[in-house]
Amino acid sequence: MRIGAILAAAGRGERAGEGPPKQYRLLAGRPVIRWSLEALARRAETIVVVADPAHAEMAGAAADTAYVRWVPGGATRTASIRAGLAAIAGVDTVLIHDAARPGLTAAHIDALTAALAHADGAAPALPLSDALKRTDGQGGVTGEAQRDGLMRVQTPQAFRFAAIAAAYDQAPAGAAFDDDLAVLRAAGGRATLIPGDLRLTKLTYPEDFAAMEAFLGGGMISVTGAGFDAHRFGDGDHVTLCGVRIAHDRGMIGHSDADVGWHAMTDALLGAIGAGDIGAHFPPSDPQWRGAKSEIFLAHAARLVREAGGRIVHVDVTLICERPKIGPHREAMRVRTAEVLQLPLDRVSVKATTTERMGFTGRGEGLAAQATATVEVPR
What we know:
The radius of gyration is 25 Å and the shape is elongated. It has two domains: 3-130 and 146-216, Alpha-Beta Complex (Spore Coat Polysaccharide Biosynthesis Protein SpsA, Chain A); 220-378, CATH 3.30.1330.50. The protein is an alpha/beta fold. It has twelve helices and 19 strands. Helix 8 packs parallel to helix 10.
């Protein structure tokens, strides 16, 4: 079964309070939209994100655009999903999901696709547990509503692609439906519901973020990785440390740019998920890495953490050298590291020390760095 996915991310999320649109805010250290993208990427061959073009910069910073296609959203959710469907081809099944529901897992996707054996569309749903009242809009109660037979329908909603594509083709151009199951049913398609999950609750109000963060952290454990690297001084007029070019009377000898700070940090991230070391992923014997920027290595390690279902919580690096002086460049190093790892600045620590003129760093023969990375991974 070939699976495609559409992620609806064109909304403004005004009820979520001040700040950027809710799909681009940080949740447990990661942009909300990235949680769903990474879950979908474990099952879907094609991912289309329907987004507001005005949010292009935020969208690019929040997600690895290498494996998604971005499509401009429409005036309504129905119009946005119509645009997303037009951008997908060659799949048997399509998942349509709200970017503001970050608790998606591969298990949810598997249950939904299995339900399509006997239906054209499927969605997770939860029963209503509270009494329902009709109001006058001003707080006054005008009547009661029976909750028997009513369900709270969530996303993702899964469909046989041919069925939902045909249903949207039949829907009037300006129509606005509550959800995609409604579009399917209006065209005569068969829909079914499977048990929902509180982790699929939609982020709507400011207080929802704390509750969802607790959900997402409940199945995780914290692990720590450590890394160390050293390089000799050689000819040159600068060194690169934690992504920052620093003028110096000597350069560094290394196959890449010899950034000991980011090399140690890369090993720390790889160690946290048991993924070997930097040399296993970027062999010094491979000429394609000659002179390469270490940002490539660090970003690769961060991506592997995400693909393992983990999230980076904190990184700490200690640079060991007599010269150059690190203090004047420390904040720039923190900023660059935070950018590459997409972490808040307060989750990045850069320190420096000397060896009191002992050893190879004390004699000015080279630089060294040691790093630790704290990562949360699934139990």
